[in-house]
């Protein structure tokens, strides 16, 4: 998973953010994003996506796009939120 949301993906809709995905990458699923964030913390002691979030593929909470991030005290946030704002971008995971 990318170390930060893709540059220029902030303040864009989920659909618009997908245009920034590099070839060979896809939008993370909730489990992919949460696992990458926890593993970075467990293995390296670093808070990954500590003050930003990534949109994920799944819909959650009334049909809104799922969001994962803000990995800091008290823990990881997984929630649903309308598309655009300054701290929700789009991370990417490599397709295998």
What does this structure look like?
There is one protein chain. The chain has 96 residues and is an alpha+beta fold. It has one domain. The chain contains 2 helices and 6 strands; from the N terminus they run H-E-H-E-E-E-E-E. It has helices spanning 14-17, 30-44; strands at residues 25-26, 53-60, 64-72, 75-80, 88-89, 93-94. The strands form 2 sheets. A 4-stranded mixed sheet has the order 4-3-2-5, covered by helices on one side. The longest helix is centred in the middle third of the chain and has 15 residues, at 30-44. The radius of gyration is 12 Å and the shape is globular. The protein starts with 13 loop residues before the first helix and ends with a strand.
Would you spell out the secondary-structure blueprint of this structure?
Blueprint: H1 14-17, E1 25-26, H2 30-44, E2 53-60, E3 64-72, E4 75-80, E5 88-89, E6 93-94
Parallel strand pairs: 2-5
Antiparallel strand pairs: 1-6, 2-3, 3-4
């Amino acid at each position: 998973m990318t170390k930060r949301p893709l540059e220029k993906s902030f303040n864009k809709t989920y659909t618009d953010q997908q245009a920034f995905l590099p070839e060979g990458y896809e939008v993370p699923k909730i489990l992919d994003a949460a696992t990458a964030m926890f593993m970075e913390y467990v293995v390296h002691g670093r808070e990954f996506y500590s003050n930003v979030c990534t949109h994920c593929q799944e819909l959650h909470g009334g049909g809104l796009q799922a969001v994962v991030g803000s990995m800091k005290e008290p823990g990881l946030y997984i929630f649903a939120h309308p598309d655009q704002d300054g701290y929700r971008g789009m991370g990417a995971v490599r397709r295998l």
